[in-house]
Design goal:
By secondary structure, the chain is α/β, with parallel strands linked by helices. Helices cover 31% and strands 21% of the residues. It has a 6-stranded mixed beta sheet, with helices on one face. The chain has a 5-stranded parallel beta sheet with strand order 2-1-12-13-14, sandwiched between helices. Strands 3-4-5 form a 3-stranded antiparallel beta sheet, covered by helices on one side.
Length: 282
């Protein structure tokens, strides 16, 4: 039996697998190769879509289906499968949210692209900087399965780091948005804080945790290890047999820590924590 054959490892992407600069440390790539070559099942478990992961869909060194859209879909053998659909009228929901929170940047995260409801230049600049595909939304148009929409705070500079810079006023406004969505459609949706100034909305019952557990069962693995850094990772971390966080993460006080994301937090889990779990002596 291979060294890690009992283990499924699912990790968040932004500020878990990547560093604060959105680049994956080489130490993590080396550790993933070591883990999979020795029988471990590895994948990412992210709120990102096919659009924001498009440069990695065919090259990412995972040997298990990618868990995307916070668990609303899997990317398996070049296809999106197991879609979880929001049971609401998409445009009615977005119109209400937009009217109540006009300063927010709303987007539809469809299976083929992101569609920006208010294509403000600064929001579009963020997409261009991140090399994400996007198009202006055409009101009333059918964009396929309603699996996710997101709200970003006002963009002050074209970098994802901007969405982690949250003032008390920002926090209060996003708390209001969170409460508004839950009060209005809480029986139909799940609301996640993907970053301090990003809210993701999905179908009821969707979570990274549910997706990870289902994949563990599908693959017949005995041990689920998860690594994450933000509020939308809590369900995944709680569902794991063993959970870890980068030392500087938003939820670092809730779970055992490894090194910072920029130093290679995922590599720390692979090289140090999983051998401890399995009782493998150095």
């Amino acid at each position: 039996m291979a060294l890690f054959s009992d283990v499924l490892l699912t990790v968040d992407y932004d500020r878990t697998l990547t560093g604060p600069d959105s680049i994956v440390p080489e130490r993590n790539w080396e550790a993933i190769r070591y883990f999979t070559e020795n029988g471990g099942a590895f994948t990412i478990n992210t709120g990102r879509s096919t659009t924001t992961m498009r440069d990695l869909l065919y090259t990412f060194p995972a040997n298990a289906p990618l868990l995307l859209y916070n668990g609303s879909a899997q990317w398996d053998k070049d296809h999106l499968v197991d879609l979880k659909i929001i049971d609401l009228d998409m445009w009615a929901v977005l119109d209400e949210v937009g009217a109540a929170f006009p300063e927010m940047n709303l987007e539809i995260q469809a299976t083929d692209n992101h569609y920006l409801l208010s294509a403000r230049p600064e929001f579009a600049a963020l997409y261009e900087k991140m090399h994400w595909g996007w198009a202006p939304a055409e009101h009333g148009k059918d964009y396929g399965p309603f699996i996710k929409f997101a709200s970003y705070g006002p963009v002050r500079k074209p970098a994802m780091a901007n969405m982690y810079e949250c003032s008390p006023e920002d926090q209060a406004r996003f708390d209001e948005l969170d409460a508004f969505i839950r009060a209005r459609w809480g029986d139909k949706v799940e609301v996640f804080r993907a970053a301090p100034r990003i809210i993701d909305v999905h179908a009821k019952g969707v979570s990274k945790g549910a997706a990870a557990v289902a994949l563990k069962e599908k693959l017949g693995k005995k041990i689920l290890v998860c690594v994450g850094d933000a509020d939308n990772d809590i369900a995944m971390l709680d569902a794991a047999d063993y959970a870890f966080c980068p030392a500087e993460s938003v939820v670092a006080d809730l779970y055992p820590n490894v090194c910072t994301c920029g130093e290679g937090a995922v590599a720390d889990v692979i090289y140090k924590k999983i051998p401890e779990i399995l009782g493998i002596l150095p």
